[in-house]
Every structure is written in C-alpha cells, then in structure tokens.
Write a structure and sequence with these properties.
Helices cover 59% and strands 22% of the residues. It is built from 2 helices and 2 strands, in the order E-H-H-E.
C-alpha cells in the first residue's frame, strides 16, 4: 500500500518546520526503542546510529534548501507499507 503523506509547495519556513516535525517523530521513535528494557544491545546501537544520521540529514536538507536562495520549496513524501511474516 502506498500512502501520499505530503504533496505541496511551502515557504522555506513552513518547509523547515514540516521537515523538522517529521524527523523529530522518527527520532522520538528510536529514542523510545533505546529506552525499552528488553531491547537488545545491537538494536540499541542501531537506533543510536540512526538518530545521529537522521539529525545530520535534517541539518543538511535545511542547509541545502536555504542555500538555494529561493522563497519556496516543493515537498513530496510517500510512504510504502508492505506486510509480511517473519
């Protein structure tokens, strides 16, 4: 199943706010995983690395948007959901 999450043109401030909110949600997900008592060491390390990567990606995206000197940004985001059994 594919879900269209975002499709639109935003001011740079709106785009920054939107991207920051999305990334903070994903970071919070990983922080909760780290906080679980039953989480395995390797899963915790993966979440810690993922948080650092997400933070860097967000900083880079915002920096790149601002460097263009444009007033607006177009954001399109789709989520693909597939189910399976282990």
């Amino acid at each position: 199943m594919e879900i269209q999450l975002i499709s639109g043109t935003f001011t740079m401030a709106e785009a920054e706010q939107l991207l920051t909110s999305i990334f903070k949600t994903k970071i919070a997900f990983h922080e909760k995983r780290i906080g679980k008592l039953d989480e395995h060491e390797e899963d915790m390390k993966h979440s810690e690395k993922r948080i650092l990567k997400l933070e860097e990606t967000l900083r880079s995206a915002i920096r790149n948007m601002k460097e263009t000197g444009q007033a607006h940004a177009r954001i399109n985001a789709n989520i693909e959901v597939d189910t399976f059994s282990n």
